[in-house]
């Protein structure tokens, strides 16, 4: 059953000279419920923009994004906020943890924007990622690998339907990168969450049964 | 809902913690502005009220020809010099005038260690009600001075300052300011200490009027003269009649009646000073709102990323806006509380000096409706200063502030 469906999605930005630069032009893309997908693409090719469009962080110039059968493009700002809070989890390359807050506070804050606030679930998730003994540690007191594990737990704390991971291993060494991908897949599997991982790293993408080349689905140079 | 409120508070306080120094400076400047404003306004109001209440139960003062205000300040508040003297006969005359309920002659001109020695009749202490249904009381073991002996009743403030107690003796000094070389030979015995009244009576030494009149070293004409007569009058009509008699028709004495409007004219003289302080308070208020604005703007530059992350996690635009407003609200609340603290400090100081100089006790501070207005105005000022940075939080571009595009 289809969870996410993208149709003729377009996004352009203005250059400093005022010229319009098309970054995203995806004719079709879809993801089934609980499906995992690895998307490879070079840095600067528009993958993050694509994920921002899917998450409702950016609005497309044209096209359709359907999540659970609902067109998210036409949602107002508040509804897009609710969508990000409840249905979509996001993992960043630079983790983007809130620096002034402890691990558990990072999760609890994210949880407070969703509809099911459950502190014990947040603590359980941190335990699952091996950080039960670091609940009250601030991000700066953790290793890079540990920070990424907090970020993974935070992305899943609201039991989303879809996790979007943007270069999730970009800041990790190969051992930690492997562990992080395995952990992410494990967590998503447990909660039947669909996962879309975008990366320039072939080793990351090769972990997934379904692999897509970003340049094959994105044609910003087309005249359409 | 409670969770959201808790998060708002958490994020606002963390923002302040992150920029603690500048937030404290902002709160402090608000406290200074509010404190200065409250002090100029409330202390003046309190002093005016206290002065009115401290007329010691008298309606009028009869004294030598001159300024009514000077008469009141001299005879009731024991401040400034006496404008001149009256004859004892004038006291006898007004005492027996219909419409005069009570009349007490006063003679001044001596001091002990800088505290004025005031000569009067013992009945002022035993019979006069300085407040409705309240007469002066003496501490246990004391009694009022005898009309014919060199005895003194000491005001409570003088007693605590000089450590005078019943049985102690002292030499009066000539003049209203203390000068060691002008000691009189007379020796007075303290026979009573007045219980505190919070009126100017606390800061003088009361002796029999004959004692001042016949003090060793005083010129012989003093024996028949007095400085003023304190009066209690039977109603407004009697007051008007007396005022007409002394101020319009007569040319030897002045009747200061009624006391309150004359005192008001005294406070009017201080209006310019009050206005300057108010202008300074407004300037500081403006400065403090600019400091809040600058503090929050600086913090916004660094917090944009944090707000972008929060927005990405599902926080609404209104939530991040409220975080910034919450931050300015906390700064303003701390500043508002600080204003009252500063006001307490300045009013304690003012109270101390006022009591030292006049014996008048400043009315204690009460949190009335006007205080609420000041409190809310300060908080409102803080909130208004937080609006521009709150708008920029509202408009924060999530995508741009999350960095790392691929």
Can you describe what's shown?
The complex is a heterodimer of chains A (224) and B (406). The model of chain A has no long low-confidence stretch (mean pLDDT 91). Chain A has helices at 47-54, 77-86, 103-112, 119-128, 144-156, 174-190, 202-205, 214-217, and strands at 2-14, 20-32, 36-40, 62-67, 70-71, 88-91, 162-166, 194-199, 210-213. Chain A has one domain: P-loop containing nucleotide triphosphate hydrolases (Rossmann fold). In chain A, helix 3 packs parallel to helix 5. Helices cover 34% and strands 26% of the residues of chain A. Chain B is α+β, with helices and mostly antiparallel strands and 406 residues long. Chain B has 14 helices and 14 strands. The longest helix of chain B is centred in the last third of the chain and has 42 residues, at 271-312. In chain B, 45% of the residues are buried. Classes of the chains: A alpha/beta (224), B alpha+beta (406). The interface between A and B is large, with 45 and 28 residues.
What composes the largest sheet of chain B? 10 strands, mixed
How many beta strands in the DSSP annotation of chain B?
14
Assembly of the depicted chains: heterodimer
Q: List SSEs of chain B in N-to-C order.
A: HHEHEHEEHEEEHEEEEHEEHEHHHHHH
CATH topology of chain A: Rossmann fold
| β-sheet strand percentage of chain A | 25-35%
Instruction: Provide the low-confidence segments of chain B as ranges.
Output: none
What is the SS-derived class of chain B? Answer: alpha+beta
Proportion of residues in helical segments of chain B = 40-55%
Largest interface: A-B, 45 and 28 residues
Helix content of chain A: 25-40%
Shape of chain B: elongated
Q: Secondary-structure element sequence of chain A?
A: EEEHEEHEHHHEHEHEH
Number of domains of chain A: 1
The count of strands of chain A amounts to: 9
Average pLDDT reading of chain B: 87
CA(first)-CA(last) distance of chain B: 37 Å
Mean pLDDT of chain A: 91
- Please identify which CATH superfamily of chain A we are dealing with: P-loop containing nucleotide triphosphate hydrolases
Tally of separate helices of chain B: 14
